[in-house]
Amino acid sequence: MKLKTDLLVQPSGEISKKIREELKEDVNTRYKDLAAIKEWLRKQPHLPDEWEDMPLLTFLRGSSFSLEKCKRKLDMYFTMRAACPEFFTNRDATSPELREILKGKLQGPPLPGVTPNGRRVTICRGVHPSLDGQQITDTLKLALMVGDVRLMEEVQGVAGDIYVLDAAVLGPSLLARLSPTIVKKFMICVQEAYPVKLKEVHIINTSPIVERFLTFVKPFLKEKIRKRIFIHKELKDLYKYVPQEMMPEEYGGQCGTMEELQDQWTQKLIEYRDWFKAPGSIKANESLRPGKPANYDELFGIDGSFRQLSID
């Protein structure tokens, strides 16, 4: 699929070399590993027979080239696509519902460059304090759509992700509309089904509401991720982790404005419109899973836990 715009600057030189070392990526054997994953996929009756090479390579990188971990992630990814229609259907960025969020409710663009240690930075901020329950779900859907684009477009790979959350517009009404079930499903997708190496979460423009928000979200986070959340009282403290010059202009940087970046990523999602509409078969078919089909209530731990899938 030929696309019009390259929004992600790919790491090169020494940074690229460091990333490969961190991801345990051997350029001499990575395509052998890719072939092994493709062969495994063909043998799983409940999973798609084939998928593009680029996202599979991204999954290998996100699994530090552990074939077993990659298989677990892929199985969870395809399972979530079937289990969470609220996130994985109606993914047309030109629809009135998604356009309203993209244009006037929330911004969440990945930044073009990477940090000196090879990490991709995404900044999320509200631009309107009022979101209803469906708009919150659609916002999480859009975040996973951006994640899918990155499966295709992180061509060289990155050494992890940094998320900066600007809490200036986080209000009590939003907190009241958060559904524990929806948040839990989203967190399982991010932590178990996508090849994301979440290194740091930074919260800026904090307020007392942020503490309540974190209290709500933390039960759904792995312990290691809870320890990677940093709250900054001043913007300059963030620059110790993310170089100032790679930030948007609103945050003292030089990579354009948040509105420009958001518009570019909105266009990117529209460019992928056919890809988002087509992948009805890119999901698990539980009726064909060897052994016991996944029980979604058990999978999402409606009783309070999260259960791993068993993988052949």
UniProtKB/TrEMBL annotation:
Pfam family, one: CRAL_TRIO
GO CC, one annotated term: membrane
Domain CRAL-TRIO residues, every copy: 94-259
Domain of life: Eukaryota
InterPro entries associated with the record: CRAL-TRIO_dom, CRAL-TRIO_dom_sf, CRAL/TRIO_N_dom_sf
PROSITE patterns noted in UniProt: CRAL_TRIO
Molecular-function annotations in GO: phosphatidylinositol bisphosphate binding
Gene3D superfamilies linked: Alpha-tocopherol transfer (1.20.5.1200), CRAL-TRIO lipid binding domain (3.40.525.10), N-terminal domain of phosphatidylinositol transfer protein sec14p (1.10.8.20)
Identification of the protein by name: Alpha tocopherol transfer protein
Lineage: Eukaryota, Metazoa, Ecdysozoa, Arthropoda, Hexapoda
